[in-house]
Write a structure and sequence with these properties.
Number of helices: 3
Structural class: alpha+beta
Strand content: 5-15%
Order of helices and strands: EEHHEEH
Strand order of the largest sheet: 1-2
Length: 126
């Protein structure tokens, strides 16, 4: 896992399919944010490792992925944040339409934040 990590100014994310020469830029489902194959899923993996092992390094990694995701959220018009994980304009949806589903949307990222809060009791907002 450590070999695929990229440390950016706004947290940590992982490279998609590091053994491939392809950058996957034209695969809308493979984004650095999604629960399926992105920072939300990898952060959840580290959270589960922490819960089983109580190794603080895993919790630290989970928080770093959470920081990355939090900074990638978009302020919602009435408060809170949302994550436009997949650009739906590539399949002819209007620009302001986004998915809220579990694998590629706000609900999956929110679920990870719920588990992160339960593990840390830290209220994470940006």
């Amino acid at each position: 896992m450590d070999a695929t990590k990229v440390t950016a100014e706004d947290g940590i994310y992982c490279v998609q399919s590091p053994d491939s020469d392809e950058d996957f830029a034209d695969y809308p489902m493979l984004t650095p944010k999604a629960l399926y194959g992105g920072s939300a899923g990898i952060g959840l993996f580290y959270l589960r490792l922490y819960q089983v092992t109580e190794n603080e390094e895993y919790l630290k990694n989970a928080k770093s992925f959470g920081d990355f995701l939090l900074k990638k959220g978009t302020p919602a018009p009435h408060g809170g944040r949302y994550w436009n994980v997949v650009d739906l304009t590539i399949i002819d949806f209007p620009k302001d339409v986004f998915w809220v589903n579990m694998a590629h949307g706000t609900s999956g990222i929110g679920w990870v934040y719920t588990i992160l809060y339960n593990a840390t009791k830290e209220h994470r907002v940006s």
